[in-house]
Amino acid sequence: MAALRLALSVVVLMLAAITLSEGVRGVGPKRCCFRFNENEVPRDRVAGYIRTSQRCSNPAILLKTVAGRQLCVRPSATWVKQLISYLDTKSIPGETSNL
């Protein structure tokens, strides 16, 4: 009987530890986009970009402007593809983005 109680206590403690660690780590992505800027943004106003997590329901590109704003845009838009291509060629190889 004592062995059964000990085993049950260990299982409960393990489940509590797993639940706590999952809550602290965070399960979801940090930033997702649900509304999109449809207007083309001039190249000289964009400082960089990041792609949102694949866990987001909508694929998106997050543009960081030179003014410090962040804009959600659709990666399928032609102007966005051209802008990303431009920014990729503009960046220095080996340099990491500060976004």
UniProtKB/TrEMBL annotation:
Presence of the UniProt keyword Signal in the record: yes
Coiled-coil residue spans: none
Location(s), subcellular: Secreted
Signal peptide extent: 1-23
Residue stretches making up the Chemokine interleukin-8-like domain: 29-87
GO molecular function, one term: chemokine activity
One Gene Ontology biological process: immune response
GO cellular-component term (any): extracellular space
Pfam families: IL8
Family affiliation: Belongs to the intercrine beta (chemokine CC) family.
Protein's name in the database: Chemokine interleukin-8-like domain-containing protein
Gene that encodes it: LOC116040133
